[in-house]
Structure formats: C-alpha cells, structure tokens
Amino acid sequence: MSTNELYLSSVKKQFLYYKTLGEKAMDQLEPEQLFTTTNEDTNSIATIVEHISGNMLSRWTDFLTTDGEKEWRNRDLEFAHNLLSKEEILNSWEKGWECLFTALNNLQPEQLSDIIYIRNEGHSVIEAINRQLAHYPYHIGQIVFYAKQLKTNDWESLSIPKNKSNHYNSGKFAQEKSIKNFTDEELRRLK
C-alpha cells in the first residue's frame, strides 16, 4: 500500500472514530439536554451539531471542483437554533458525515497533492483534509465535555476510564507489538 493510500485509510478511520465519540456522548443524554446552554455565549450540543454539519456540507460537496465555502452556506444561521428535536439533530449529523465520507471515498491517492480552495485560499487536498480533521474533533470534544457535564453521574467513559490507566496499559503491553491504526480497537470497544 502506498503512503497516500495509507494516509486516506487512516483519515477515514480517524473521522469515523470521532463521529462515533460524538454519537456515544449524545446517546447518553436525554433529548432536552441536547438544547441546554449555560449562558448566551455558549452553544448547545444541537447548535454545535448544526455547525459541524453545515461546515461538512460546504467543505465536502464538490470537494475537488468548487470553493469549500459555498455561496449557499449561511454560517451565521447555523448558530440560530434551527434544530428542534433529537431526530432533526441526528439527521443533520448524518447528512454532514455522509457528505464527508462520500467525498473521501471518491478521492484517489494521486489527488492528494491537488489544490482546492477554501475562501479563495489554496490548500493541497492533504492540507484541506487535515484542516477538517482538526476542526471536527475540536467541536466533538466540546460535545463530549458538555455531555459529561450534563449527565452528572453514570457517565459511560468514551476513553480510558478514570483510575483505570494501569489496567488499560497492562492489557496493551501484554499483546505482541503490531502495526495497526489505534482506531481499529477503539471503534470495536465503543460499539
């Protein structure tokens, strides 16, 4: 497998991992908690989802051929509390992720050095992917943190549980060394 093929495989797995983290965090909440804000300057999980989805649809639609900031996108409207039910939140979430994975699955390894534009600024395809691979986990981290705060107790850990690092590490070091993506095992564990 070429380096470019490895890269594409890796980023697809990482995007899927972060998608799963967001879903597992939201699954632990009551529907009304998805709309909670702590003050006027914070976004609810519903609003964060709407923003992520809006960004994905803009960035990944016609990824190689049109600017990533589409003329039809209204970024400010993504923060106007348009999603009104858990079903709408999850539909928006899926629509964004489907657009992202469709674009990634259609990419060819030799296209990674092509230039695409976001707000008229040129990026190699790799840079554009990396930009989004930093952006979405940033917001998914907000979702997870917010969900933990809202849940208050009985939180099902999405990573190594508190005070369980030694147990986790002993299991890892008991295995043979191998080359694999960390997300392979983590995605199995989260299912």
Helical fraction equals 55-70%
What overall geometry do the principal axes of the alpha carbons give? flat
Number of strands: 2
* Rg computed from alpha carbons, rounded to a whole number of angstroms: 18 Å
Order of helices and strands: HHHEEHHH
Estimate what percentage of residues fall within beta strands: under 5%
Biggest sheet layout: 2 strands, antiparallel
- Structural class call reads mainly alpha
Low-confidence stretches: none
Note the total helix count: 6
- Average residue pLDDT: 94
Explain what the structure shows:
It is built from 6 helices and 2 strands. Strand 1 (115-118) and strand 2 form a beta hairpin. Strands 1-2 form a two-stranded antiparallel sheet. The longest helix is centred in the last third of the chain and has 27 residues, at 125-151. The protein has 191 residues and is mainly α.
